[in-house]
Amino acid sequence: MSTDQALRIVATEAAAAELGRLKAEHGPLELFLSGGCCDGSSPMCFPAGEFRVGSHDLLLGEVGGCPFYVDAEQYERWNRPSFVLDVAPGEGSGMSLEGLHDLHFRLAVPTAACDVESAAQQ
């Protein structure tokens, strides 16, 4: 993975811990940033292979050993931001696995590159 790709998506310690718990329960996982259906523009977590990744989807990188995808056109419209994956209490309204634990993944857009690097080191 290139350095550029590694800094496009990072996870907080809490999000990485939840991904670890979900992997222990469900096996390999993948994440996809939904484009507004179901749960707005929220990260969705699925067992690997359950979500059909298309040729128009972009691999932003990996978090907790899980690939993280977004629609390439949507990512371009957003001017190629970097994201920090976090987790918060309360079930989301989508079909994402962490909802089983009354949690939901969320994204933050760091205010500076150092915020991304800091989260990556957690």
What does this structure look like?
- The protein is of the alpha/beta class and 122 residues long.
- Helices cover 27% and strands 32% of the residues.
- The chain has helices at 3-6, 13-26, 72-77, 113-121; strands at 9-11, 29-33, 43-47, 57-63, 66-71, 83-89, 103-108.
- The strands form 2 sheets. Strands 3-2-5-4 form a 4-stranded mixed sheet. The protein has a 3-stranded mixed sheet with strand order 1-6-7.
- The longest helix is centred in the N-terminal third of the chain and has 14 residues, at 13-26.
Keywords:
122 residues; alpha/beta; 7 strands; globular
Cα radius of gyration in angstroms: 13 Å
Overall 3D geometry? globular
The secondary-structure element order is HEHEEEEHEEH
Helix content: 25-40%
Report on the biggest sheet: 4 strands, mixed
For the record, give the distance between the C-alpha atoms at the N and C termini, rounded to a whole number: 19 Å
Q: Helices and strands: which structural class?
A: alpha/beta
* Approximate strand percentage: 25-35%
Q: Which strand order do you get reading across the main beta sheet?
A: 3-2-5-4
